[in-house]
Amino acid sequence: MAFSTESKKSGETYYLHSKEVTLRGGRLQRIYYFSRKVDEATALDEIPEGYEIMENSRTGLPMLRRAK
Length: 68
Prior knowledge:
46% strand, 5 strands
């Protein structure tokens, strides 16, 4: 089951995903993002260790950030 969170501003449900992207210099980096649809290939079951969820106050979109 994909990890989900509900936006406090819009009430929409968002699901956590992750994928590897190649940066311009050729380095691979893992990115985390939220989507309204579940993609079983990239969906995560839990928040990665050392991260926490925050919500953009202007748009209401959830984001991950390193835990303080």
